[in-house]
Recover the amino acids of this structure.
């Protein structure tokens, strides 16, 4: 063993303590740390020849890179849909690296059983039935891809084709219908060989992002009995709008289609008594996407995918090699997702669910919803600010009487908050997305005060 590595091994307890102390100082300083910064140009250092050891690497990181990192773990990072990391999830993440389990198989470790348990907990929390099985993936994009890949195989099954064996060329055109599909759905269709143009946008309800179910029925009718994939939204990005899942499911009496529900963060409405009705029908979907590094507040990367068709999932993702056991009983996870090897992402979710339970995470969700509504109400009192949609859940979408990009940059430059610009119904807008476990209405007040000040 090289001297530097041997020295680090000998000093490992002290090195971990030093790292722990630094991490604690970062977390304690989140409220004062600029929420987002414009990083200074950085020149890439040459590849180290001998290395400087862990202590040296930590010092260099603190000096060169840490100052440019955002405060995205803190309570006023409201850009995109970004959660933080609960204390328990952080502990789970530390132990994920410590045990370094390859959670893709069931031999020689209880890691896969822990993932099974965690998937079961999440399934119950989101109100899904025992017919749904699931697996951890890296994020909503991969969760959508897995669900659509299984849907693609189902379409092939209806046509007497195995896409997994014969390829997508044997399948022909696959109609995909959706009202306001997320960009990751288009990306998944491209990766799957179905093509971005396969998605046929369905008319949405007036001033909404929810699909007009009558228009969806007309689109299905026009297919003349050909099976399709329908992508429904349980929470759109701009306005957190929800498709009427029950009404869409009723169309199955007349038309054959695979229902995939993108519930990346809107699925957490199931935890709010006042909003759970928005995901009524989720349990009858063929596949479901839920992103966990959003509202569950686990570290990147972590999401889960569910399906009621595990047999088709295995057909798509099965992996055969002389050194791998044959499929029998409950399949190994490398038969269920694109990855053959993967970190035990489930451990962070297991820790936070074990530590805080459903009630703790319900409190996080309802507090974020309250903060979003509070900000929405405050913004309406600022002259010239206009909400472009009602605050349905945890996102405030609004426009201002000035340049949106300039205001977004001014907010970031203040260090107080971070919002992302968007366009909704042709209007430049700003989005404030609440999903961090630390955020309170007091943080919403600070953001509202800042915007009011910048606009005067």
């Amino acid at each position: 063993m090289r001297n530097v590595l041997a020295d680090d091994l000998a000093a490992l307890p002290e090195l971990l303590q030093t790292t722990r102390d630094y991490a604690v100082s970062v977390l304690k300083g989140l409220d004062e740390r600029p929420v987002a910064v414009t990083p200074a140009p950085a020149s890439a250092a040459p590849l180290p020849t001998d290395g400087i050891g862990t202590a040296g690497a930590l010092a260099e990181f603190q000096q060169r890179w840490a100052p440019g990192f955002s405060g995205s773990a803190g309570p006023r990072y409201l850009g995109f849909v970004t959660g933080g990391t609960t204390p328990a999830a952080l502990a789970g993440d530390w132990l994920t690296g410590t045990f370094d389990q390859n959670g893709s198989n069931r031999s020689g470790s209880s890691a896969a059983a822990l993932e099974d348990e965690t998937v079961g907990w999440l399934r119950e929390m989101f109100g899904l039935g025992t017919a749904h099985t699931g697996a951890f993936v890296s994020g909503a994009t991969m969760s959508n891809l897995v669900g659509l890949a299984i849907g693609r195989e189902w379409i092939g099954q209806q046509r007497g084709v195995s896409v997994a064996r014969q390829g997508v060329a044997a399948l022909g055109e696959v109609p995909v219908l959706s009202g306001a599909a997320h960009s990751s759905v288009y990306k998944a269709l491209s990766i799957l060989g179905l093509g971005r143009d396969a998605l046929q946008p369905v008319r949405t309800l007036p001033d909404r992002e929810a699909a007009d179910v009558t228009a969806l029925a007309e689109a299905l009718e026009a297919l003349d009995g050909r099976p399709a994939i329908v992508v429904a939204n349980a929470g759109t990005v701009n306005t957190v709008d929800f498709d009427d899942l029950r009404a869409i499911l009723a169309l199955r009496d007349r038309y054959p289609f695979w229902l995939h529900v993108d519930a990346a963060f809107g699925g957490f409405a199931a935890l709010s008594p006042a909003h759970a009705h928005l995901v009524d029908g989720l349990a009858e979907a063929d596949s479901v996407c839920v992103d966990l590094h959003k509202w569950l507040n686990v570290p990147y990367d972590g999401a889960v995918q569910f399906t009621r068709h595990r047999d088709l999932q295995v057909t798509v993702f099965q992996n055969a090699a002389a050194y791998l056991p044959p499929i029998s009983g409950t399949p190994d996870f490398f038969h269920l997702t694109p990855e053959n090897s993967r970190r035990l992402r489930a451990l962070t979710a297991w820790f936070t669910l074990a530590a805080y339970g459903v009630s703790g995470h319900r409190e996080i969700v309802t507090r974020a919803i309250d903060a979003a509504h509070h900000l929405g109400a405050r913004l309406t009192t600022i002259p010239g600010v206009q909400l472009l949609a009602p605050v349905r859940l945890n996102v405030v979408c609004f426009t201002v009487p000035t340049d949106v990009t300039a205001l977004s940059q001014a907010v970031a430059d203040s260090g107080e908050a971070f919002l992302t610009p968007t366009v909704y119904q042709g209007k430049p807008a700003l989005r404030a997305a609440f999903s961090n476990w630390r955020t309170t209405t007091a943080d919403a007040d600070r953001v509202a005060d800042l915007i009011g000040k910048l606009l005067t």
